[in-house]
Fold this sequence. Notes:
Strand content: under 5%
Amino acid sequence: MQLRARAAVVALIATALVGGLLTGCGGGSDSERLSRRELVTRAEAVCAAGKKESDRLRAEVVPGRRGEAAAAEIDATLEALNLQIDAFADLRGPASTDAQLERLVAHLRDAAHGLETLRDAAADDDLTVDEAVKASPDVVQQVNRASAQAADLLAGLGFLTCIGGLDG
């Protein structure tokens, strides 16, 4: 269970980072919308860059860090995830993608909330990331569910490079 839970957090790190640089892609009016092809092309390029960042972040993880040090690792993931959430919230493709993008953002927010809970557990109880994950099976389930739902939406949107990033 501990390895599986740790894998869920690592997968979420990848999820958080796949679209982390997707800023300036959208806007407000319909005239600023991207075509479906442009939407997919831009998202895939950003997700490829995000995977590279995810790999870097995972390389910096030091198993066994406790308390605030473990929380700092989760904070880095949260920062990247919040960038992704903002970027996907701003992304404007064809109107037919609006509902999927809104649901994607909602699931990413659910994942972020789960990470915040794990971060607090690590910091407050002087736990390692693994211990926080093991002590919080309901939170891990929430994160896994949100990640799976996000992956389904990414596939539906055609952001296939992003899904590869989810596999960690």
